[in-house]
Every structure is written in C-alpha cells, then in structure tokens.
Amino acid sequence: MFTSTPLFVGGLPGGMEWAVILLIAVLLFGANKIPKLARSSGQAIGEFQKGREEVETELEEMREEADPTTDTSDDDTLEASSDVDTDTDTKSDN
C-alpha cells in the first residue's frame, strides 16, 4: 500500500522541507512580520550568548579562587629559573 516518509530524514531539513517551513511561517505570521520576527530572534540569541559568557567567566573566577594551586607566583618562579639556566648556558659557551 502507501507508505509515508518522514519530513526530516537524516536530521537536517532539505530544500523542499525548508520551502514548506517557510510557507507555513508566511501563512502564520504574514510576510511583513517575518523580518521583525527574525530580528527579534537574533537579538534573543545574542542576549543568551552574552549571558552564557558572563556565567562562564564567573565560574572560571570562582574556580581560580577555590583552587590555590593556580597561583601566578609559581609562574614567576619558573620564569626566573629559566633565566638563570640561560645565563649559565651562555657562560659555559664562552
């Protein structure tokens, strides 16, 4: 008999599926409101990304405060010891 195939085979919609989605959107919202809808959706996504970045920054700051092993003074000590090593290498070459 007749078998139907799903619209979204393989995950992402193809050309014909996008045409159907666009047609439904035009019928629901009207042609004049679609650019406004797209603009507001873009702004909402931008705000979401800003909020996510702020949360990630705060979490990173909290991790640095909670973890005393990430002290920057250790890095300074390593740089100073590497300077000493290079000085002894240049003296031995002379």
How would you portray this structure in words?
- With 94 residues, the chain is mainly α.
- 73% of the residues lie in helices and 0% in strands.
- It has helices at 15-29, 34-66, 73-93.
- The longest helix is centred in the middle third of the chain and has 33 residues, at 34-66.
- The model has no long low-confidence stretch (mean pLDDT 76).
Keywords:
94 residues; 3 helices; mainly alpha; 73% helix; elongated
Q: Approximately how much beta-strand content do the residues carry?
A: under 5%
Low-confidence stretches: none
Residues in helices, as a percent range = over 70%
The class by helix and strand makeup works out as mainly alpha
**What is the average of the pLDDT values?**
76
Termini gap: 92 Å
Shape: elongated
State the helix count.
3
How big is the Rg? 29 Å
Number of strands: 0
Biggest β-sheet, characterized? none
Element-level helix/strand string: HHH
Write the SSE topology.
Elements: H1 15-29, H2 34-66, H3 73-93
Précis, in short:
The protein has 94 residues and is mainly alpha-helical. The protein is built from 3 helices and no strands. The longest helix is centred in the middle third of the chain and has 33 residues.
